[in-house]
Structure formats: structure tokens, C-alpha cells
Amino acid sequence: MKNEKIYNKANPELAQLVSDALVILSSLGVPSVGLSARRKQKMAKAFLAVAGMRPGFSWSHVKSIEDGHRLISRQIIRYMNKYLDENISEGSYDDIRRADLILPVEAGVVLKSAKNPDADTNDGTRPYGLSMLVAEQLRRFGTPEWDTSIELFHGDHKTLTQQLKRERELARISVKIKGDIELHFSPGPHNVLQKRVIEEFLPLFGFGAELLYVGDTSSKYLHIDEAGLRALSFSEIARDKLPDVVAYSPSKNWLFLIEAVHSANPITELRLLTLRKMVAECAADTVFVTAFPDRATFRTHVKDIAWETEVWIADTPTHLIHFNGDKFLGPYPGTD
Question: What residue range is the signal peptide (predicted)?
Fold first, then answer.
């Protein structure tokens, strides 16, 4: 027989705690735009587990790594199941890393591998925890000191600013291009997927492709090689027209136009028509790719995917889905 839940969904105290956690995360600069209500709820609950919080506790109870509170993914799931009205299989532990805590980690609010910074990236024993600095901010939530504390958190206090900057830099997503060039994406699931396209899809299927363009949710052009694009007679270099990632393989003379879909905008028939017009004078053959983070996201968009395009799913990076069956990866002839 299943263990009885300590807190059920009708528990207003738990609902308030989750709501407070989301307010705190937002105040600390954790982005949530584009997340579903369920994704926000799970992020908040995973954050509460890392903070050692549950219904019945005031925010003064928050624990940091200095208090010895560090949890690996499976321990976070157990905590959420026991105290926060979840029923998550421990086999879903990778969701903690890939989805529930990815934004708080990237924002530097939650520290990953708090005990062993040298642990392998995919090591399931890497624990999560709060720094003493963040824990101190949380303990002020709901007190008259909270607003002032947050202002200082984002203010120009030298020691505080340096420490926060260091934590954020440790959590940023870096991509190296052509040796010494390094890109820094702002936090967010869309940028995580773009990073995986550059670091996994292109090395696997790009035939030595060179990155010509990648955007960022917080800036117009994170990287753009205008000379390279113009050399290929690329007609549109406006950011609102370009796909998320553009790369070129000199050995194949293939131009890769890639849309990274976290929540919307795969390559539909209409988008394909727009992209074809954009490269109508292009000297290279074109490969159109829609990238998804996982199969669940792909399934929500599969009915809209255009024919004569490719699909890449980051969770199974060594495979492709070809929308037509007459050939494997490669460009299709344009149509008038």
C-alpha cells in the first residue's frame, strides 16, 4: 500500500509556500517566462527541497550548504514526495537536473556539486545546495528587511556584487567557436537547447560546419558572421527573420538553418516557405532542422513539422527523424 501523502493538493499552506518560492526565485533573477504552470510548480518545489523548506516551516528555517544541507537528485525527489505533495518516480531523477533546477542553477541561486566541484557533469551523486549568501536572503523573506535586502542583492555593494557575479559566471553556458572564441548565453531553457545544438548536433551531423549565427533571448546577435552569410548570398540578416542557429559546412556546401524549439515555433510549412525565400539566391544547398529538447516536446509539435525537413531531439542526440523517406540527412531541391 502506498504511503499516505503528508500534504495534499488542497493544502493552502503548501500552495502559499510554492507561491512564495516563485516570488523569491523571480526576485533573485531566475527567469520563468515561457514555463508552464506545472513547470513553475516543480521548479519551486525542487527549490524548496534544496532549501530544506516544507509546510509548517517559516523562511527562517532555510538551510545552506554551510549547515550541511546538500541533496542529490533522488533525495530531492524523496523530499518532494514526502513533504511537498508529489508522487515522482526516482527513475525521473534526471528531470531534476535537466528541467526542475536548471534555471536556478544557471542563475547562480542554487549551487550544483556543492560538495565536490570536480564531479562529472552527469554524475548523479552531485549534490545541490544553497550558498550561505542566498540562504541569508531567503531567511529575510516576509520580514521588513526583505525589500532592502533584495535591493542590496542586486545593488552595488562591492563584496556582494563580486560574489554573486562569480556564482553566475560559474553557472553560465559557454560555447567555444574556432579556438579561442567563447560565447556566453543568458540563462533559460531555449538557450540551453541552442547550446546543445552547437555542441552536439553540429559535431555529429554538421560535417565540420562553421557557426555563422546564433541568437540569444536577451541580445540581438550573440554571434554573427555577416561576411560569411553574405558570401553565401544570404538575403536576410535581420534577427527577426533569421532562424535560431545558422551554420555552414564547406566540405558539403550545406547551409544548416536550425530552429531550437523549447515551447513554440518549429519549422512548419509556412516557416519553411519563408526560409526558402530567404536563401533563394544562396550558393549552398540548404538543410532545414527543428531541434527539440525531448520527445515530449516533439510530440506536441509533430503534426506541424514541414516535410523535407529534419528533426533532432537532444535527449537522443545520435539519431535524426527525417520528414520524408527518400533520403537520409541532406538538402532537398527547392520548389518554385
Answer: none
